[in-house]
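Reminder to self: keep the SMILES exactly as supplied, no canonicalising. Ligand is zinc ion.
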Amino acid sequence: MVTNWRDDETESVILNDITIDEPWAVVERFSHLFRLSGSADELEAVRYITDRLANWGVPYQVHKPTCLISLPGPATLRTVGENGQTYTVKTSAFSPSTDGAEITAELVYVPGSQASGINDLFGAGRTVSHQDLRGKIVMTEGLGIAARGIDLAASGAVAAVFINPGHRIHEGITTTSWGSPDLGSLGRTPPVPVVGINKPDGEALKAALVEGPVTIAVSNKVDTGWRQIPVVVAEIAGNQASDEFVLFHGHLDSWFEGIGDNATGDATLLELARVFHKHRDRLARTIRVAWWSGHSHGRYAGSTWYADTFAQDLTANCVAHVNCDSPGCRWATVYHNVFFMAEAEGIVQATIKDVTGQDVTGGRPLRAGDCSFNNLGISTFFMLSSTMPEELVKEKGYYAVGGAGGNIAWHTEDDTMEIADRDNLLRDMRVYAVALIRTLNSPVYPLDYRAAVRQIEGDLARYQAAAGDAFDFSPALRATADLNATLDRFYTEADSLMDRSVDDPAVRQINASQRLLARSLVSVNYSRDGRFRQDPARAIPPLPDVAPVVELANEPIGSDRYHVLRTHLTRGQNRVVWSLRQAERRIAERIQ
Ligand SMILES: [Zn+2]
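Structure tokens returned for the bound complex:
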């Protein structure tokens, strides 16, 4: 089995060299640096990392792309009239700015809901209001993360207030443009200023509304513009197939000290760069280690710039990308909600079991967190790794957050040294190291695309059930069945090559086929907007071209919308079938 390969000797040599001291020094140093994208503190963090790399002789480059970056400034909210009160609020990256001028209007509360879990947090959950919100300031529950909450453009509201779930107001970003915008992503920012308020203050405003009409005045300042940000990429060349590479990456920028999100990840990247460089004679393929800026304040601007700029290289040569965000946090002792594409489930399960003895839950990666390579069609596993057990979250009365191991210090002033945990960090670094060694050194990549096709088949079956007689998915289902049959023969051959070397011509060929499989299957399953574009930062359902089929059941047969949906699905299925057939032809050619 290609996903079961391991080299115990190399793993133990590398694991024995991973220490906590060097990474802990990174975390401590970063606790004095507020790493806003493009800031002087962030450049200091770049200097720290590149000094270390230079000392060890690890080759690296610092790129300085110009990206659209948005830094929230001060914001105010006060009730107008007798006994007017002021409240503490924060505005978000990419919120329109009032430049400090107040917008005064009647406050309207629209009941919403807080995210129930991380999948929900980045999901498309919308609050529907039947009230007339034109000219009003609307208030609802949520973090104000783009794509959640009120449809502000349609509502006619003049500003929005999001009630956070706890005592702290979480920093965030409201645009759904993934990375710097192009023509296709213009208009993906909210049309009106957005501020966040904490729960007690939000409840106080709700209570005041029960008494009678409330007029409030809000203002904010947001500094949005194209600015230079740093992107650091170290490269440790493999010695058998150096053109094939694994991209190991995480974000350098932060909100405040950003210890759990993402100083611990930056430290992991640096420690593994050190150890892999020291044992570079043992690496068959190349590893690139990248620290991005522009994650928090540019909606993944750094990794997206890299995907754009090195698109041809990534498309031709990238084996997989592995994201590292928020490892090694306090109380994060379990591996739940870990993200991996289906083809990587085997290596993820085996690695975490081997290193920690634990089982993993999780699956399909969310459209979040520097997963900027889906349109290109590159396989991935991990983003977040360990997290707090569910019972502990409940016991502490915590709510869903998007990192820091489930600590609600995430994206707040509280994400300080106490959020990092030495033992958990060491354990997570070992998990990443083993997964990377196996991906770098396994003769045939430890990725099984039969699992990806089975997942696609399952989703198609679900969509067929939703469609009933209104739409026929049998062309796509036949294509998955044919591809699976061909892949069974392909993996029989792959299994027979597992004792060869990485640079054996037959191994090189079969891996080239695996990369082509990924380019077809990942892009059709995770994106809609074309190979060299970026889908928006909002939930992307499986096989997004045909996912709207779930609406069909609710449409009266023969209605306008019914016909529009069927037209959409016919075109969507064409892309799905073409992608599956393309993948099959490439594999069939090689095994004849
Ligand atoms: Zn993060």
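Points to follow up:
The chain is about 40% helix and 15% strand.
Residues 560-591 form the longest helix (32 residues).
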